[in-house]
Amino acid sequence: MSGRSGQEIEPWTPARQAVGSSGHATLTRLLDGGADVNEVCFGMTLLTHATELEGDSALQPGQPIDSALTAIVLAHGADPTATPDGGSSAYEMARFYDHDRAIRLLGRFTARHG
User: Fold this and answer.
1) How far apart are CA 78 and CA 23, in angstroms?
2) Would you call 106 helix, strand, or coil by DSSP?
3) What is the spatial distance between Cα 100 and Cα 84, in angstroms, rounded to a whole number?
4) Distance between CA atoms of 75 and 24, rounded to whole angstroms?
C-alpha cells in the first residue's frame, strides 16, 4: 500500500486490527490459527500495542483499565521483553499509562520467559 507521498505504508494485520477494536474473541482465534504473536507493525509489537490500547482506553472518563488483550497475547507466547528498534517495550508502555495489571502480568511472564 502506498501513501500520498509514495512511501510504503505498513498494512494493519488482522491481529493488529483485532487488538485495535478490542476484539478479544477474534484475536484469540487468529492467534490460535497461527498469526504471528511477535509481529512488529509501526514500530510496536502486538503485545506493546495491546498494552498501549488498554492504557489509552482507561484515560477515557469512567473507563476501568482492562488487561484482557495483554493477557491473551502473553498466553499465546508473546515475548514480554521484545523491544523493536526505536520502539517501546510493553513494560515501558504499561509504566507510561500506570497500567498496574499489565505490569504484574508482564512481570510474571518475563520470569517464565527468561
Assistant:
1) 17
2) helix
3) 22
4) 13
